[in-house]
Design goal:
four-stranded mixed beta sheet; two-stranded parallel sheet; alpha/beta; Translation Initiation Factor IF3; 6 strands; 104 residues; 27% strand
Length: 104
């Protein structure tokens, strides 16, 4: 992925998701080290899968905490499915976020 904005179709998002880098949140929960690693991977790869293990202290509140984590690492969550979330860098434009032309 490039550093500039890139527009993806949902098919491309699915393809990236299959090959995405993976990060697991375990018994230490969300640490500063994990945030930094996730920030770097999202910036480099564009798409990262984050899986919350059952022994993680955030397991019960994972949906809200994963959304907060995405904001902290300059990304957004596309989807949270069970224990796994898909993070995408903020520069990636998804099909429902296409830029609109202004009439100025």
């Amino acid at each position: 992925m490039t550093k500039s904005s890139k527009e993806l179709s949902w098919k491309e998002v699915g393809q990236y998701a299959q090959q995405a880098a993976k990060i697991q949140i375990g018994k230490k929960g969300i640490t500063e080290t994990l945030k930094e690693e996730l920030r770097q991977r999202v910036k480099k790869e564009g798409v990262v899968k984050v899986r919350v293990l059952k022994n993680s202290p955030i397991f019960n509140e994972r949906k809200t905490l994963l959304k907060q984590l995405a904001e902290e690492v300059d990304s957004k969550t596309i989807r949270i499915m069970g224990h796994t979330a898909l993070f995408v860098h903020n520069t990636v434009l998804l099909p429902n976020e296409k830029k609109r032309k202004s009439n100025i």
